Amino acid sequence: MCKLRQIAFFLCLTLIFSNCKEQQEPIDKINDTVQNDTLDQYFTKLYEAKMFNGAVAVKRKGKLIFKKGYGTANLEEQSLFLPNTSLEIASVSKQFTAAAILLLQQDHKLKVTDFAYKYLGDDFPYKSITISQLLSHTSGLADYSTYFKAHWDPSKIAYNKDILQYYKTSKPELLSIPGEKYKYSNTGYIFLAEIVNATSGMTLADYLSEKVFTPMHMEETFFIGRDSIWDKDNYAPGYMFNIVNCEYVIPETLPNKGYYRFLSGRLGSGRLSSSVDDLIKWDQFLYSDSIFNADSKALAFTPHPPTKADSDYGYGWHIKNDSLHGKTVFHTGSWAGNLTYISRSLDTKDLVIIVNNTHNSGYLKEIRASINGFLNNEPLQLPQVKASELFKLSSCDMEVETLDQWYKDHKDIDWDLKNLLKLQNDYLKVGETDRSDMLNVLIRIVQADKNLL
């Protein structure tokens, strides 16, 4: 009998240690930098050309082949942008909001087929909208931001409860019958955050911290008030370019951009801060069943199209399939100068994470495509310099008399006339008539040279 007890004891110890090992595998220590000369040269050139300022990570077949930061995180502090630097990840946050809902379903606290009003209150006027429709952007809800930009007191921060109350009292008309059409909806994800609160008794921030971020050791992932980001250590606030003085500035100081501050209280649709390092951990965990079971991941990574239109959206992720990578799930984000991207190929275990905090929107789409091509063994392609972006950066030091020579010096760049005309209009909006006139002269020089008149 004693021998049997000893055997049972050692078996229990073996199971305990094997379970611990299984839990800890996804959070193996990530090196500070992972070098790939080809990718490093590419991003160095992008940074030097003022096309990129941020951090990037790339996995090929599950192996991290590159990770590095470029440029400045906080412009006032002149701190380095590193892979462990946090920044607001904008709509990439939605996959975490969806994860919270799926965890609650795993715990039998709700069902995605439930009607949303069951958790948002009987006074929620859209009785036929389901949680699944909120997750998949098929609810038909109108966007909240138009009303709040026009009517909200900018000295106050708008929170989820304020947005929900607006829908309960003003009852804005639905854009479509719930379930029939796809319309990307930040409003829906704000309501999902409120459903998490009603179901769990915790805010989305506290719930994700307890259920996801702490177990995953995602120490650089959190929600933070906007007024606190400018002084936070190892944090990259987002900046936008001021076309008047040719400098990067705090976005809400720009004309008609004050909403970046007063709409910073909502969560669910965005506002989560994270780092490249933590998003790598997130990717690792999503290949295990340690927190999310297979059924939850299948729901997240499967499109849920409406009945009368097409959609590639699952729960918090876009989904695509191709012959090289099989199923790939991805999401982008854009808010207050930050541009973010994560793409995970589930079959090949390729991963691309790109974050940028200086709103280089003119080039990020091409950069993403080039890195994805690199994983297909295609040569990296530097984006062609866009005339609209270069003029913005250079205009403070230019004069009308030098425009002809400036054009000759940059004749081979991308003369994106549509964007140049938009930029000209932007100058007029802020009273920069001299700059607008200068750009008008430049456009005529280009048109004459290219026989576009």
Q: Spell the H/E element sequence.
A: HHEEEHHHHHHHEEEHEHHEEEEHHHHH
How do the strands of the widest beta sheet line up side by side?
2-1-11-10-9-8
In the CATH hierarchy, what is the class of the largest domain? Alpha Beta
Number of helices: 17
CATH homologous superfamily title of the largest domain: DD-peptidase/beta-lactamase superfamily
Radius of gyration: 24 Å
CATH architecture of the largest domain: 3-Layer(aba) Sandwich
**Uncertain segments of ≥5 residues (pLDDT<50)?**
1-30
Structural class: alpha+beta
How many domains, in number, for the residues? 2
Kindly report how far apart the N and C termini lie.
99 Å
Descriptive report:
The protein is of the alpha+beta class. It folds into 2 domains: 54-374, Beta-lactamase, CATH 3.40.710.10; 387-449, no CATH class. Helices cover 39% and strands 13% of the residues. The protein contains 17 helices and 11 strands. The chain has a 6-stranded antiparallel beta sheet with strand order 2-1-11-10-9-8, sandwiched between helices. Strand 1 and strand 2 form a beta hairpin. Helix 16 runs antiparallel to helix 17 (433-449). The chain is globular and about 70 Å long.
